[in-house]
Amino acid sequence: MTDESNRVSEEDVQHIADLARVTLEDDEIEEYISQMDDVLDRFETLDEVDVTAEDNDQLENIVRPDVIDESLSQEEALSNAEKTKDGYFEGPSTN
Amino acid sequence: MTDLNIYITEEKIDPEGTGALDGEQVAVKDNLCVEGVETTCGSKILRGYKPPYNATVVDRLLSEGATITGKTNMDEFAMGTTTETSHYGATKNPVDTERVPGGSSGGSAAAVASGDVNLALGSDTGGSVRCPASFCGVYGLKPTYGLVSRYGLIAYANSLEQVGPIADSVEGIAELLTVISGSDEKDHTTVETERTDYTQFCENPESYHVGIPGELIDNADEDVKDCFWSAMGELESEGFTYEKIEMPSVEKAVEAYYVIAMSEASSNLARFDGVRYGHRSDDGEDWNENFSATRGEAFGDEVKKRIMLGTYATSEGYKDDYYDKAQSVRRQIRSEFNEKFNQYDLIATPTMPVKPFKIGDSLDDPMKMYLADANTTPINLSNIPAMSVPTGKSDNLPVGMQLIAPSFSEPMLIKAGMVAQQTL
User: Fold this and answer.
1) What's the confidence (pLDDT) of residue B366?
2) What is the largest CA-CA distance in chain A?
3) Segment (H or E) for A75
4) Is the model's pLDDT at A94 over the cut of 80?
5) What is the pLDDT of residue A1?
6) How crowded is the C-beta side of B180, counted as CA atoms within 13 Å?
7) Which of the four CATH numbers 1.10.20, 1.10.260, 1.10.1510, 1.10.286 does domain A10-44 have?
8) What pLDDT is attached to residue A2?
9) Coil, strand, or helix at residue B173?
10) Between chains, do B287 and A94 touch, taking CB under 8 Å as contact?
């Protein structure tokens, strides 16, 4: 289980899983606590890099005119959905 | 012959035109959309998904006369260095069937190495073309960011990835690059350039002045180092010159890469909710519960882990510590490469610091697997091109050399690659 030295607790993992919309089993939560900790420890070492480079990217936005172009037909767009209704995607119920 | 599990879907797709690839057979990684052909990305969540359109690179292959042989196995959503995280089972390395072919484009490299095809397409987000090319003893190129369209490539980390060719010769790499490169109005990150015939550079092999970053050779296994230096020696006798150089920031490329890639992945993979395509759970009382159940059931372990870490690294209170820092390190690495290219034509490293793992050996320890990407990830962070060329074998296992060039200098990689091909 979790101890003081862990960067992430069981509650943290559960909270992140909720944010990420991923249901986790108990054994997955257990495994992720220690594995996420190892990885986050490594991520912390980014502090060691001496960053002197300036942000001088010469990037420009590329946009296209907002005109209607050919796109998928409704039938094609719906073709991979498990549930459709009256030509629409059917989502889960909202109660 | 042993079943190498190269393809997820083996299905012949006929050409739609004639041109530069007449008569060629090309294997295509399963994260590239092919109209009407199952495209799973190595995941259970996309089992049965048949895209209603072609990726731009697929369109270009077919219109230039190529026949596609099928969709090759890969790490789930391209997240892996071994092709073992595929929902459809591991691919075996044709050189040694107890070993992994590398990843994530393991099926494409194995298709070429086994002789099934001469040409294949992979995608490279942090080494996914170069690693399997190295592990399977073939050629693989990660093009400059913006040279090849990503339209129809199922996204893992958009700011890092490019579709890249894998082939049994430098000529094959040049042939494929000629067809797949060039601007695409459907991918606004592609750069407006004249279409280039890269095969012309195969006729002019050229030797170059090369820098070798100590940081990316000292980390390698002894036998990999031996192979690398002996290959450099052979290239020297063909007119190459080289010097050891220092690039301190690249030592943290793996960490910067994983923060950025996981952050982008956590956002990109939000689209897989079971409503428009893919697996859909029967569980859950409302939208959120149903989406969570769908994703919990159908994403594999490595994908969930990366989504979790990416969500954490971009969440309120932590973004400054991880994502923003990783972006600064990315900038630093890019600037170190640019600086070195003032003094050296090319930079060279071993492609992988290790030889192919035994199947099953690396999965338990994610950090061990991530560190194997030490030499390939700096390239994606810097948007520059790099090609893995075979240097020979150590204990009957292939070892690759990575040649790195400035942005849009693919012609230099091809000319240098030709010397390597004729010499090593």
Assistant:
1) 80
2) 59
3) helix A74-78
4) no
5) 42
6) 36
7) 1.10.20
8) 43
9) helix
10) yes
Token couple for B177: 């690059």
Question: What are the mean pLDDT values of chain B's consecutive 10-residue runs (424 residues total)?
Answer: 90 98 98 98 98 98 98 98 97 98 98 98 98 98 98 98 98 98 95 92 98 97 97 98 97 97 98 97 94 98 97 91 95 96 98 96 82 97 98 96 98 98 96
Q: What is the ipTM of this complex?
A: 0.93
A64 Cβ under 8 Å from any chain B Cβ: yes
| Torsion B48-B53-B56-B58 (CA) sign | positive
The residues near B282 (Cβ < 8 Å, ≥ 6 apart) are: none
Q: Are B34 and B56 in contact (CB under 8 A)?
A: no
List domains and CATH numbers for chain B.
Answer: 7-206+348-423 (3.90.1300.10)
B155/B136 Cα distance (integer angstroms): 25
* CB-closest option in B289, B308, B331 to A20: B308
Known catalytic residues of B are: 29, 104, 128
> Strand pairing of B162-167 and B119-124?
antiparallel
What pLDDT does residue B265 have? Answer: 98
Tokens matching residue B409: 């200098």
Residues of chain B in contact with residue A50, where contact means CB-CB under 8 angstroms, are: 248-249, 332
Residue A83 sits at the chain B interface (C-beta within 8 Å): yes
What does pTM read for this prediction? 0.97
Q: Positive or negative CA dihedral for B137, B38, B32, B259?
A: negative
pLDDT confidence of residue B355: 96
| Beta strands across the sheet bearing B162-167 | B7-9, B67-72, B25-29, B119-124, B162-167, B139-142, B386-394, B397-404, B346-350, B209-213, B241-245
